[in-house]
Amino acid sequence: MTEKDRIKTYINNLDEQMSGGIPEGHVILVSGNPGTYKSSLSYSVLYHNALKNGIKGLYISFQQSRESLTDQFRAMNMDPADVEEKITIVDASYLRETLDPDPGDWIEVFKRYVENIRATTDYELLVLDSLTTLEMISKVEDRRETLFHIFEWLRDFHGLTSFLLTERARVKETLREEEFLADGTIILSKERLDKVETRRYLAIDKMRSTAHETSYFTLLFDGERFQVTRVISD
Ligand SMILES: Nc1ncnc2c1ncn2[C@@H]1O[C@H](COP(=O)(O)OP(=O)(O)OP(=O)(O)O)[C@@H](O)[C@H]1O
Ligand SMILES: [Mg+2]
User: Most buried pick, 79, 132, 144, 221, via CB within 10 A?
Assistant: First the structure.
């Protein structure tokens, strides 16, 4: 696989840790507890790819409103207005209004929206914020089967690399279905040290077709960019 086939994360020092980036077409889980930067970090991948490579990204939120996300990203100096030609951010209320007053199954709404928009615009990156919320608001009967179909459906889009955000808190140590189904898993976490400082971490838990580092990195946001550094044990 060549560099060309990989999507750079533009998280400083991370792409070097995974053979240049995420293989195009992969379905990636971005997994972490509340407030571990799942949304901002995933959006930062879209933002920098749009700015630097003109790559189009679609951010679908079932969790936070478009307005609240936009405010947050702007405050982090990744203003959606800079990339409005390339990145589309939509939330659940938008989907409800545009698609159907009675949306029925939210998973179907999500799929229908992606299929429609992908038919006219060549989005190469997709963020689903979050798989956990989508599952929660949909009445999933057979979780295993439902997830299997979502992953297969995503892989069928030619040249689409997806980031599915998932909460980690609910099921602690047990491996979940989605971790087996995903092509890659990025784990985000944080830890409060001595009641003062919060340290944040990132680990590449799994990345198919890729030689990658597996240890935890310290994750920093410098006001504009994310970066990882090797954890120095103290
Ligand atoms: N301007 C900012 N600069 C740096 N960090 C910020 C800024 N604003 C908020 N944060 C931090 O980012 C965290 C939220 O990040 P984000 O929303 O990306 O996390 P998340 O994992 O998606 O959270 P959730 O589970 O609530 O969706 C906040 O809890 C705060 O610690
Ligand atoms: Mg979030």
Answer: 132
Domains parsed from the chain with CATH numbers: 3-230 (3.40.50.300)
b/e code 111-141 from CB counts within 10 Å (16+ = b): ebbbeeeeeeeebbbbbbbbbbbbbeebebe
CA angle 139/127/80 to nearest 5° reads 130
Q: How far is CA 2 from CA 53, 157, 205, 209, in A?
A: 17, 20, 22, 11
How many angstroms does the Cα of residue 129 sit away from the middle of ligand 2? Answer: 7
Q: pLDDT tens digit string along 76-130?
A: 999 999 999 999 999 998 988 887 656 678 999 999 999 999 999 999 999 999 9
Give the pTM. 0.95
Nearest protein Cα to ligand 1, atom 15: 37
